[in-house]
Specification:
The complex is a heterodimer. By secondary structure, chain A is mainly beta. Chain A is built from four helices and 15 strands. In chain B, a hairpin with a 2-residue loop joins β13 and β14. The chains are: A mainly beta, B mainly beta.
Chain lengths: 259, 395
């Protein structure tokens, strides 16, 4: 029996790419990228958000984030706001799920109140930025269906170009086009198409660095909204892994203590 | 008070030592209230200016397992000497272990889910001079042990001593008429404000349901007010009975719906009643092709005492609209109307907030009272419609 299984596995892995449909190939690429990025366990980082409006006026937010990898479901994450000063100490806890709505809680320090909030609003802006909640939450394979479009070169890098369609009908997008770096299996560009299927936003992650000899993380992510002329730049720093986080660091008690 | 000063000094020593990393924050807020009609009681003030400040010092050590939090608050009020007050909102030490947490000192705890009123929330006394919406609380001395288990969190409280509710003074506005005289405060317990209260709460999130069950034994946070003579004036005397209060709070979060319920059973030798608030909040996301959300809040407020209730909300409906622009300035507005089902008593309130630059926040609040029938507590406010403009600096 074991030998048959092995044979089966072998036969799957040696199936040449040209025999796959574009949908199968797209899914395979997404699964590979996901597999390559699994096993990181936990991570924390600091994040600066630079919001720019049409006139070029800037406002900045400082956010510390930490997340815990959950096998077989979406990840757990907590964001703690350090600025602007009037929301300092506000914290956001999210349990991402693949097949059901995410669980989300918001902590309001002035009232010491934890509020469970509705997660249906995936397309709503995160902290007044051009990033939607669904752009900020953990990317899971089962959240989309895929279609490989073509291979090409982007800024001198070999990429797969894949179309992915959100499964969740509450998503703000009809589809996304992803330029995935073949070498590091990370996106170099993502185009987001709104519900009317017109181009809404373009995301360009850059300055990738490798951590733990395996996991690639961006130093910056630039989101341009083509429809309202606004943009948001995320600047990541102080990535740290193996922090020893457990579920206990992602519960309502730790949310109340988050500083 | 001497002990408090010693503790404060100790905290100041710790937080001021340069080797330690201390997290500082705070705010200063100026506030102007504009009234539209002369007061019922001619001694009450007219338009009123007020300034408040709050600082927060936080220090953690032992790899985040221990921390000290210190939050002093003070307000200077132009018209009401009772509203000019200071309080230690927090001065506490916490120890955090893997499956339990200790907090000892003055601290603040919030329980509950509904918007119209907070019935279950009983640990901290209301700082009622701050705002008649009763959202502001006084620091409460406590020893709190939280046990964190797979089946939920159990919080156990020993509360050594009681804080009297603050009430607006003679000049205060809005306030009940006749006014509350704190010098006539009395207690059921012979230990008065030294009675040691006990409380416990179990809370848990089960799927899309958040649920809490609580129990409290001790001095009622809400006094019974009875008319009395004081220097030839008719006033209200606060009497604090000993109560047992059982509470339930739950919220079901499903799609765009939040279903909420809070219920209490209060049992005392002098007054006993059941109260509940229940309803929903439904949010329309991204209205009119913008990033803005519009939420509809509806809650029913029940009190088993009916029209004899000492609070104005015994058979009332709250209808509210919450607008959130989701913009860079975090602009939001909340319009609420509480209406009695049997008569035409209304309470309108509108509150709007917007950040200005990085460090300032502008808040505008408007309240209108329309009293009818037996709602004596609302009738006091009949001439007290006001507009409040607040500008806060945050650092």
């Amino acid at each position: 029996m074991k030998r048959i299984l092995l044979l089966l596995l072998l036969s799957v892995s040696v199936t040449p790419a040209w025999a796959l449909t574009p949908e199968e190939k797209g899914l395979e690429i997404a699964k590979n990228a996901d597999l390559r990025d699994s096993g990181w366990g936990d991570q924390k980082q600091t994040l600066e958000m630079v919001l720019r409006n049409k006139q070029g006026q800037e406002s900045r937010r400082q956010i510390r984030g930490r997340s815990l990898e959950v096998t077989g479901d979406g990840d757990k994450s907590m964001s703690i706001f350090d600025s602007p000063a009037d929301v300092k100490g506000t914290a956001f806890l999210s349990f991402t799920h693949v097949n059901k709505p995410d669980d989300q809680w918001l902590y309001l320090p002035a009232l010491k109140r934890v509020k469970r909030i509705a997660s249906k609003n995936k397309s709503g802006p995160f902290m007044g930025s051009e990033f939607a909640f669904e752009d900020m939450s953990s990317q899971e394979v089962d959240k989309y269906t895929y279609k490989w479009l073509r291979d090409e070169t982007l800024d001198g890098k070999e990429v797969y170009v894949i179309e992915r369609i959100p499964v969740d009908k509450n998503s703000g997008y009809t589809r996304q086009i992803v330029w995935l770096d073949k070498e590091i299996d990370q996106p170099l560009k993502v185009e987001f198409y709104d519900r009317k299927d017109s181009l809404l936003k373009t995301l360009v992650p850059s300055d990738y660095k490798e951590y733990l000899g395996k996991y690639w993380r961006p130093g910056q992510m630039m989101m341009n909204n083509h429809q309202n002329g606004k943009s948001t730049l995320l600047i990541f720093s102080e990535y740290s892994f193996n922090n020893g986080f457990t579920d206990r660091d992602f519960d309502q008690n730790s949310l109340k203590r988050a500083r | 008070m001497g002990k408090l000063l010693q503790l404060t000094a100790a905290v100041l020593l710790i937080v001021s030592s340069p080797a330690q990393s201390v997290d500082w924050r705070g705010n200063v807020t100026v506030q102007e209230r504009l009234f539209f009609k002369p007061p019922i009681d001619p001694r009450q003030h007219g338009d009123n200016f007020s300034v408040a400040a709050q600082a927060e010092m936080y220090h953690e050590w032992d790899d985040g397992k221990q921390n000290i939090s210190f939050i002093p608050f003070a307000r200077l009020d132009q018209g009401d000497d009772q509203r000019t007050h200071a309080d230690i909102r927090e001065l506490s030490w916490s120890y955090i272990a893997r499956d339990y947490e200790w907090t000892i000192g003055f601290s603040k705890v919030f329980w509950g889910v509904t918007e119209a009123q907070h019935l279950v929330d009983i640990i901290n006394q209301t700082d009622q001079v701050e705002d008649f919406d009763q959202e502001e609380k006084l620091g409460q001395q406590m020893a709190k042990l939280s046990l964190i288990r797979d089946w939920g969190t159990v919080d156990l409280f020993v509360l050594p001593g009681f804080r009297e509710r603050t009430f607006p003074g003679v000049e205060g506005r809005p306030r009940v008429i006749p006014r509350v005289e704190k010098n006539l405060t009395s207690y059921e317990s012979s230990q008065e404000d030294k009675h040691v209260d006990l409380a416990a709460r179990w809370s848990h999130a089960i799927g899309d349901m958040d649920i809490g069950l609580s129990w409290f034994h001790g001095t009622s946070r809400l006094p019974i007010l009875t008319p009395a003579q004081y220097n030839g004036e008719i006033v209200l005397a606060p009497f604090y009975q000993i109560i047992d209060q059982a509470g339930l709070d739950m919220q079901l979060t499903r799609g765009s719906w939040l279903w909420k319920l809070e219920a209490i059973n209060l049992d005392g030798n002098y007054v006993k009643y059941k109260r509940a608030t229940g309803g929903f909040e439904y949010t329309f996301y991204g209205i009119a092709n913008t990033a803005a959300d519009l939420g509809l809040v509806m809650e029913y407020l029940y009190d088993s005492r009916g029209e004899l209730a000492t609070t104005p909300f015994e058979d009332d409906f709250l209808t509210g609209l919450r607008l959130t622009l989701n913009d860079a300035q975090s602009t939001d507005a909340l319009l609420g109307v509480i209406k009695d089902r049997d008569n035409s008593s209304y309470l309108f309130s509108l509150e709007a907030n917007r950040r200005i630059g990085d460090s300032w926040k502008l808040s505008i609040q408007a309240n209108k009272f329309l009293a009818d029938g037996l709602d004596q507590s609302l009738k006091s406010f009949a001439e007290d419609d006001y507009l409040q403009i607040e500008l806060g600096y945050y650092f």
